[in-house]
């Protein structure tokens, strides 16, 4: 198991354990031009991170999904691009603040950013190992991570059920 997903091998499922994460983020709402919205959020996080206190690593971004009925509609689907912070102190009020509880999950890196291929590898591993996942009562879960100085894109499973 890799704690906090330091460096991930390409297309190999890995169990990752995250401590509680304090994240600040920028929401992208609606599936129309989600790629453009993601690029704007990425650029905003990378450029503003130089001026923000408490950023753990400006080169690692997490993509989060809220859990609720709005996610099933293309116009109200929400994706939140986030960066980890040590503290919310002195973070501008316009950033969304999310605290994600500690959890274990299965993660697959894919340098090409192929969400489907990485997701299929995650699902196959979960089936093979008989692992169960659930959002439980979590309002938000990590769906992916970008390490711009490492493996690139990585797809996350829902948290593992103990």
UniProtKB/TrEMBL annotation:
SUPFAM superfamilies, alphabetized: Probable bacterial effector-binding domain (SSF55136)
Matching InterPro entries: AraC_E-bd, Cass2, Reg_factor_effector_dom_sf
Listed Pfam families: Cass2
Residues in AraC effector-binding domain copies: 11-161
Gene3D superfamilies, alphabetized: Regulatory factor, effector binding domain (3.20.80.10)
Origin superkingdom: Bacteria
Name by which UniProt lists this protein: GyrI-like domain-containing protein
Organism: Paenibacillus oleatilyticus
């Amino acid at each position: 198991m890799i704690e906090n997903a330091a460096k991930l091998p390409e297309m190999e499922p890995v169990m990752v354990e995250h401590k509680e994460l304090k994240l600040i983020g920028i929401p992208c709402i609606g599936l129309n031009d989600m790629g453009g919205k993601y690029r704007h959020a990425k650029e905003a996080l990378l450029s503003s991170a130089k001026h923000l206190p408490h950023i753990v690593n400006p080169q690692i971004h997490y993509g989060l999904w809220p859990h609720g009925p709005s996610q099933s509609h293309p116009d109200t689907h929400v994706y939140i691009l986030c960066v980890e912070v040590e503290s919310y102190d002195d973070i501008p009020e316009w950033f969304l603040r999310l605290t994600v509880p500690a959890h274990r999950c299965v993660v697959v890196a894919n340098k090409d950013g192929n969400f489907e291929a990485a997701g299929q590898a995650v699902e196959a591993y979960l089936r093979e190992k008989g692992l169960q996942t659930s959002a439980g009562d979590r309002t938000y879960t990590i769906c992916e991570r970008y390490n711009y100085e490492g493996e690139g894109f990585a797809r996350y499973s829902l948290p593992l059920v103990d």
